[in-house]
Amino acid sequence: MSKKRKWDDDYVRYWFTCTTEVDGTQRPQCVLCNSIFSNADLRPSKLSDHFNRQHGGVGGHDLNSLKHMPAHSDQNETLKAFGVASHEDALLQASYQFAYLCAKEKNPHTIAEKLVKPCALEIAQIVLGPDAQKKLQQVPLSDDVIHSRIDEMSQDILQQVLEDIKASPLKVGVQLAETTDMDDCSQLMAFVRYVKEREIIEEFLFCEPLQLTMKGIDVFNLFRDFFWKHKIALDVCGSVCTDGASSMLGENSEFVACVKKEVPHIVITHCLLNPHELVTKTLPAKLRDALFTVVRVVNFIKGRAPNHRVFQAFFEEIGIEYSVLLFHTEMRWLSRGQILTHVFEMYEEIDQFLHHQSSNLVDGFENKEFKIHLAYLADLFKHLNELSASMQRTGMNTVSAREKLSAFVRKFPFWLKRIEKRNFTNFPFLEEIIVSDNEAVCIATDITLHLQQLSNFFHGYFSIGDLDEASKWILDPFLFNLDFVDDGYLMKNDLAELRASGQILMEFETMKLEDFWCAQFTAFPNLAKTALEILIPFATTYLCELGFSSLLHFKTKSRSCFNMSDDIRVAISKKVPRFSDIIEQKLQLQQKSL
Question: Mean pLDDT, to the nearest integer, of 224-232?
Fold first, then answer.
């Protein structure tokens, strides 16, 4: 470990002051351009070199003369009064703005110092001249500076979100999901949904690593400690939507038990974006074998680099459009559907390739019954993909998700009636290859058995968000039959009064359902509260899945040891840092250190 250098008051002769990190590390900061350097640069040769090259001055100031210089804050206030930013303000503003864009674009911090600033200086020299280049040179864009700027912006964004959570008139909804990054480190990500003014807001909450084990109690401790750290009671959460392994985050997991013990009345939902898993569990033996054969074929091609290269060359030679197959993954919604569709459409070419490689998978792949089962699975999973895609959006609540699932399940009886008549219109791939009545009879029996079992599982598994008749006024208070509401229901008078307003009817017709009920908080607080308690809980972990996609940009081989929590928050949060407040606090701290 390298020796840490110590500050000497004599260094002020080069117009530097000292900043001290939390761990006690001292770092020099230029008073003129606010650049902060590493501890290794805390030596006269480095400091004088910066002073002479960047500011063209001559050293020789002592500590007392520097302390009694006119305060920068006086100059800044005068300039601000005339609507002009001071030189220091402009440099800091530029530095923060670049750091913000760097995080938003998910770029490494070193890109500023190694690429952007050198390019900008060259452009300034060519287009604007040496004076502009000299000014641009003073903008602090070192790796450490960008890192500290992003940390400060992240803390400001987090503070905004925490303030909103505390001010929310209703309990908030949270979605949690876990993934494993390229370092085999388990990352827990959370988003929050809350009411602010006249709308429902969805915001990033945190992304933290699970340090040792990945049990339900570990997830709960991390989740609880986040709220405790920021002095927020855990009962501010009205609902939690989870996804992942049943032992860790499932409805019967240790995590859920711990949460309910701490917050007894909390609503627990499970992500509705995984009907594929339910379909797989209900497959009859023959269909399950067909699915596993597809998985083995894809992994044979993709899991071995030589096979994959030969596969691509083979397809280029015969001029086929598809040359890349997806890996089969267990916990991603669209994986199986895309695999099955691609394999069915490339069936003949893959069969030739397996022969070419003398694979022992050829016999099972060439079986006529396998191809028929493959066609049915490709059609069914394509329907499931369309269902999942319809729920992959922000603002999806449990009621809307339940309606989509119910609409999907209600198609099953119509499909079954057509299948009984050997009509496979709803399964176009299957219809394409069925050539004999015997084949139709065999597959019709398997499909009928599977769809009946699947329908029963759907009704039992996805029950959340199913409103009773007396609560359906939430969806449409104007067409709802008030006779379904008991006369003793305290809010029946409010419903009658709301229905009598033509202006409120216009609002209902032009606004989203959630925004409409947020807008009624002033006039009908009880109705709005009851409705939003139903609409706030998350139905899916879609936002976490988007966050995991961003995680891939931050956690790479070249950045594997990098703590990316702050970068992710700045990158995917909808909140914009309060730059003026951050810069003002920064300048005040610098003034106090002089």
Answer: 93
